[in-house]
Structure prediction request, 422 residues.
Amino acid sequence: MSNTGWLLGGNVVRMAVGLLVSVWLARYLGPEEFGLLNYAIAFAALFTAVASFGLNNVVVRDLVNSPKDASTILGTTFVLQFAGGLMAFGLAATSIFFIRPNDDLAKLMVSILAFAMVFKSADVVKYWFESQVQSKYSVWVEHGTYLAFAGVKVMLILQQASLMMFVWVIFAETVVVAFALLAVYAWRGGSIKFWRVRCARARTLLEDSWPLILSGLAVMIYMRIDQIMLGQMLGDEAVGLYSAAVGISEVWYFIPVAVAASVFPAIVEAKKQSEALYYQRLQKLYDWMTLLAIAVAILMTLLADWLMAWLYGESYRGAGSVLALHVWTGLFASMGVVSGRWYLVEGLQKLLFARTLAGAFINILANLLFIPEWGVQGAAIGTLLSQIAAAYVFDFFNLRTRPVFWMKSKSLLPLSLWRFKL
Prediction:
């Protein structure tokens, strides 16, 4: 509970400050420049799975199960993710050149944001703290840095800085977080000089994570491809309207992610003790996440038009209908976060890739069908359909995953409220 409290508390502060700065920035830049910035961020984000090699959950699991091998696990993971960051940068910079050959500004922005992924190799320290149920230290670093750079963004807005200055600030924030994580790790008694790189460990990690690399890429496609396709089909202004709505819709996503990350070691331990306890904890997690998601979705749907106009101004009022649709993806995204952890515990990484690939394919197809007809609303529909397909319906079609399909279905029933116990 203490670990979860740090994760949630830090993210609540970050959510509040981030929302304020994002709204202010959107008002300052206007829909077109705000859309271009989000287009570049989304495009670079497509390659984050390559940068991380999908190692996050695998490394946490190995650190929990084999603490004596921590130095080898950490050192090997750091080198793998550094190489992955360089690969991701090269892929992003090359891809944007072909997709927007005449847009020099977009090419420069994507290249800068993609190069920042090289510094994400320091995230190996986060994995260590997560495995030790000591996430408060990484929270201190990430959120402290975030708040400091939020202040920098406010200063730039007040000084009427150019769009590129905000891109450089985003890059600088990533660099500072990387070095700060390493410093805190050293402060807590760790030492990089004891890290070791072993080819055998690298092979083991990649054998377990390669489906997660592809799965992560598929996830980023069906989470971000809507912004990229909107930019290509309707222009940057449409991306600006859509991104403003998505920013509100996803503002609470840190809750299921933080809770799932914090209880992951406990879920692993529960499986060792008892299958009944293991599934009892999973069901309870589904129940609470579903209840929270439905409450948020109903509230946002009722207030969507007023909220967008009040926060972002009249130029963003048209994004209200996008928010009313997109906010329901949170229900299924929460299910996906929890079941994704279950897939990993059960060793079903290949099936995890298959379901996210299905979601990505459905999102692309839906965008092609609905964006020309309904514009930004069509992109929201595409994202919702892809989340329903990947995070919920997919599990019905395989005997090994059907138990979690019924668990998710049970959490949607009103009678599930009777099972809530502290």
